[in-house]
Design a protein that fits this description.
mainly beta, Tachylectin-2, Chain A, five-stranded antiparallel sheet, four-stranded antiparallel sheet, 3 helices, 45% strand, globular, binds beta-D-mannopyranose
Length: 339
């Protein structure tokens, strides 16, 4: 499968914009972020993996150790004045673990009615559950909701639609989809952000020409005149020719980013979608030197007043990067109908 990055995408020259060297507490991987503009600043929450070093993985690869280093995760917080240069705060802002929940990770941020909602994934004893927490100050978080397993990659729309909170999500159906990854994007709504229902299918993996495995929501949607513009991630897998690529023993998947447009009034309706990838792994920090090379995992998208879009993504499950494009070019890629 040939994939490439759309011509309108510009990778920022300062990439990677977040690395573990910028984190003042234990950290080995800093990736998969949520980003918002809030109270005059850019705010980022990021997945911070710790509990092992690059040397542990080198030792594993060289046969000097046998066991996979046990990585733990918490969620870090960073602020920025320009969305490019980030200052990581002295402590992680969110850490969920108890007898049932092992960890929370992959945070995505959305501001709704002046409050900050953070969607996240959790690994638990009884499966993977997606959660939603709300905060006003990034210090105190109230967990409003956790799905039943298995669900992940949840993102919220930045305003209520038809009076309801709305989210995109990615459940993991197994039995009815052949017992392997054939995972799709769904939408649900809620009157209060705690009880969710009215679920409907938005996009099936078979509708995405550059995926042969699974898809998922990536960054929370941004509102444009033509519709809700939102990034997705898509996986293509090649077990026959891909082997070790990164610190892991075997990594045969590739994660790319795509872009689609949803109807403003009925966001379960896809009204435009690029048939080609938006960002494919191509440059050094995306294709080499990481935990799992060839992973582009967007989690934050900001539409600036001048029409430029900032897209933040995890690269190689190791660092965080920024790419930009003009909103009109992204809409053109979606072949948006004229309104
Ligand atoms: C997904 C999640 C992400 C990760 C991606 C690529 O299933 O675990 O956190 O970035 O795989 O490894």
């Amino acid at each position: 499968m040939n994939v490439s990055t759309a011509k309108c995408i510009v990778r920022h020259p300062s990439n990677p914009i977040l690395t573990n060297a910028m984190v003042p507490y234990e950290s080995v991987l800093t990736y998969n972020v949520g980003v918002i503009k809030f109270q005059g600043k850019y705010v980022m929450t990021f997945r911070n993996d710790y509990g092992a070093t690059e040397k542990d993985f080198d030792d594993l690869n060289a046969g000097r150790r046998k066991d996979w280093p046990s990585l733990r995760s918490n969620i870090g917080l960073a602020f920025s004045d320009d969305g490019i240069r980030w200052k990581v705060q002295p402590k992680p802002c969110f850490d969920l673990h108890d007898d049932e929940i092992f960890k929370a990770y992959d945070p995505r941020l959305t501001v709704i009615d002046g409050r900050v909602y953070m969607c996240f994934a959790t690994d638990t004893r009884h499966g993977l559950r997606a959660g939603i927490a709300v905060t006003d100050d990034f210090t105190k978080f109230e967990v409003l909701h956790l799905t039943v397993p298995d669900n992940r990659n949840m993102v919220m729309f930045p305003e209520r639609i038809g009076g309801k909170y709305v989210r995109l999500e990615r459940p993991f159906p197994v039995y009815s989809r052949g017992g392997k990854d054939r995972f799709d994007i769904w939408l649900s709504d809620s009157p209060d952000c705690r009880y969710w229902g009215n679920s409907s299918l938005v996009l099936g993996v078979e509708d995405v020409p550059y995926s042969n495995d699974k898809i998922g929501p990536a960054a929370p949607p941004v509102k444009t005149k033509k519709g809700w513009l939102t990034a997705i991630h898509a996986v293509d897998r090649d077990d026959a020719t891909r082997g070790k690529n990164g610190w892991e023993a075997k990594w045969t998947k590739r994660y790319t980013a795509g872009i689609m447009l949803l109807d403003l009034d009925d966001p379960s309706k896809v009204i435009g979608m690029s048939k080609e990838t938006l960002i494919a792994p191509e440059v050094s920090y995306e294709i080499s030197g990481g935990l799992r090379n060839n992973v582009i995992f967007p989690g934050g998208m900001i539409l600036e007043p001048d029409g430029m879009v900032k897209l933040y993504y995890g690269a190689s499950d190791t660092v965080t990067c920024l790419a930009t494009a003009h909103v009109d070019e992204l809409l053109a890629l979606c072949n948006a109908p004229r309104k």
